[in-house]
Amino acid sequence: MKTSVLDGPPRRNLVFVLPGLILYCAFIFLPILSAVGLSFTSWNGLSAPRWVGLGNYIQLFGDARFFTALKNNAILMLFYCVLPLILGMGLASAVSAIRPRERLAVRTLLFMPYIMPSAVIGVVWQWLYNPAFGPINQGLKAIGLGVLAVPWLGDFNWALPAVGMVAVWYYFGFCMVIFLTGLQRLDPSIFEAARIDGAGPAYVFRRITFPLLLPEVRIVLLLTIIASIKSFDLIFTMTRGGPANATLVPNIYMYDLGFQLSRYGYGATVAIIGAILVFAVNYAVHRFLKPRDGA
Amino acid sequence: MTKYSICLPALRRGAVSFGLGAGLLASAAAAEDLPVWHNYSYDGEIEVIKALMDRFEEAHPEVDLIRTQRSFDDLALTLRLAVSAGDGPVVTKVNQGAKDMGAMVAEDMLIPMDGYISEYGWDEQQSQSLMDRDRWSEDGQFGEGTTYGISSLAEVVGVYYNEAVLEEAGVALPLESFEDFLAALETLKGEGVTPMAMGMATGHLGLHLMAAVAQAHIDASHRAELDDLIYGRGGSWKTDANLKAAELMQTWSTEGYFFDGYQGIGGTDAVQLFVAGQAGFMTSGTWYFGDLQSNPDIHFMPMPAPEGVEQPMAVGGVDLAWAITSLAEDEATQDLAAEFINDMVSPAAAEVWAAGGYLPAAPLPEGSEVELSALLTEGIEAWTSLNAADAIGHYPDWSTPTMLTTIDDNMALLMAGRQSPEEYVDIIDADYQAYLAAK
Fold it and tell me: Residue span of the signal peptide, if any (chain B) (predicted)?
């Protein structure tokens, strides 16, 4: 029998994975290790780092700004994960019912926001939200709803939802495409049988469609939760965490600590805790959101 | 066997070509790169700095200036890291104060400039109190000791007013006192005109207005208290002047003296709205002269004196300083960098800045025939009278490395009515006292 060169002993095959391994170590693993090391120091970016042990971590758990950032991030998850998921699933159901040619056009149109760079989207929406000449407030005033024309990104109550709605707009098309793919995977005969048995649309969705789409729901949740905890560019371009920390999230806080206040050690601590949060939340999604067959 | 003969003409041509090539290479090697970073970001400023740098290159054909333009924030963000990585500028603009210049001096990242100051006579063009802003002592004391920079432009934060808007609203000019200024705001509001241009989403218009009001309540004869505070010698931000300014800011915000939705409008947008005649007043610095001179109705004056203050202080001083970084390793490079800076702060450069509508720190050359805009003429008058009275104040954010962030965060709360003026002043003072304790 002809054997592949890859069937050799692992140490021989090491050479094949070596380029990838070197890149991974250089650009991912070593920086992570450096960040972990840095989080145990006080470093201004110029002089030699000073070892502070767990000092940064102890300080972080008493830091009101950090908890504000975490609270804002938790609220943003609603906009990054839950609303795009609901909207995406609803639109996927609607779009899957139309004819293939129209479906392609509508799907492409709704997916468009997701292919744009999020920093560009942030700049564009900042302009759209501008209270002086942005079209949103101009439109509201033109139809007699001037009372609703608030300074979206400068208002303590509205800044976070305003940024969040941009995230909804950015991610709902992506969720819809994933769910459309999932719907195409399902056997139409199941739905036919349900219809013959007299099941209504709501019942079909609750007992058949949603359970069968759980693998897609899990993927969507994993990716959008990671995106929400990683959120930086949209917020940086729209509010930079303001007004007065109303849209501050851990990554913006980390940036401020490092690059504005030259507290790189403490900033690394925020980064490490953020990474641990990503792992913890994703583990929870993996653990608790499983299809019945355990797939 | 092949016979080879020497072709003399070809050899000669080759030798000439080689010589020419070598000569070109030699001249390329002799050209010296001088990386220069600056923060001139408005259109008018960019035009002037480009013209000045082109002129330097023409006079020094052996030097290639490598110009990098950064915004104020981006310069602060990248400068220290770039210099520490060995990949930054040889000549740079650097913000005075503890956060930037102070940190760089502490790490020996800037070259002392006192020798060049004597050599080029810069101290004859700019007063000692202005040059104090670029001084740091060996034990980290701001405002004294070795000099690490010198600036091209003077700055005064004052009151811009739109004469046409004010006259139409029935405001009598000139405004003689702070009380007149407050009355003018009332009149404008009563006429349905936005009294003051403001945008808080980006920039620091709020900080400038508040600092201008606070420092106008300090008589120049009592400036030592403010100097001590800014130079980190001690003191307290809990003063009547700061409290009064905080109270006014909150009142103006909650009672609609600024643009509708000003919290979501950027500083630059607010300036453009002011240029378009959308407000009666705007308080900011002379760095906007170049942009504001497009509207001839716009004029400039220092913040007028409140009752009981004979000579009010005005926030200001000089723009970011030109400095030589530690990347200028040898004396020849340092000398070249100093020569470049001398060109940038010379009376001849002052003339180019003035022609562009900007307020130079150095005096114009004697007999200069440069045509000054009306706005610049008013700026020069303000600068001259304030200097004569030793009434040029300070930017509050220079006082600690974290003060800018503290002010930005808390001013938004103050103006939204979520923080009382007393709380605001307490927080600012707490930032300062923490810095003093950690020094």
Answer: 1-31
Tell me which residue of A78, A92, A218, A220 sits closest to A160, measured CA to CA.
A78
CA A289 to centroid of chain Cα atoms: 18
Residues B202 and B302 in one domain: yes
pLDDT in tens, A21-73: 999 999 999 999 999 999 999 998 888 899 999 999 999 999 999 999 999 99
Q: What is the pLDDT of residue A294?
A: 47
* Residue numbers of chain B with a pLDDT score lower than 50: 1-30
- List the single residue in A46, A155, A244 with the smallest CB-CB distance to B264: A155
Q: How far is B78 from chain A (nearest CA, A)?
A: 8
Of all residues in chain B, the one with the smallest CA distance to A46 is B84
Instruction: Tell me, yes or no, whether B308 and B433 share the same domain.
Output: yes
Residues B161 and B269 in one domain: yes
Same domain, yes or no: B123 and B201: no
Chain A contact probe: residue of B80, B263, B406, B411 with most A CBs at under 10 A: B263
Q: How far is CA B221 from the centre of its chain?
A: 25
Query: Is B179 among the domain residues?
Result: yes
The answer to whether A154 contacts B77, with C-beta atoms less than 8 Å apart, is no
In the prediction, which pLDDT does A272 show?
A: 94
- Cα B240 vs. chain centroid, distance in angstroms? 27
Nearest to B412 among A44, A244, A260 (CB): A244
Looking at chain B, which residue has its C-alpha nearest residue A155? B263
Q: What is the pLDDT of residue B12?
A: 46
Radius of gyration of chain B (CA): 25
CATH code for the domain in which residue B102 is found: 3.40.190.10
Residue B134: closest CA among B114, B116, B119: B114
- Written as six digits, the tokens of B54 are 């082109």
Whole-number pLDDT of residue A63: 94
Q: Is the pLDDT confidence value at A8 over 80?
A: no
The strand pair at B146-147 and B298-301 is best described as unpaired
What's the pLDDT score for residue B4?
A: 38
Q: Does some domain include residue B235?
A: yes
> In this structure, is residue A49 part of a structural domain?
no
d(CA B96, CA B117): 17
B285 Cβ neighbours under 8 A, 6+ residues apart: B155, B156, B157, B158, B208, B315, B316
What was the pLDDT predicted at A1?
Answer: 59
Count of domains for chain A: 1
Note the ipTM here: 0.80
Alpha-carbon Rg of chain A, whole angstroms? 24
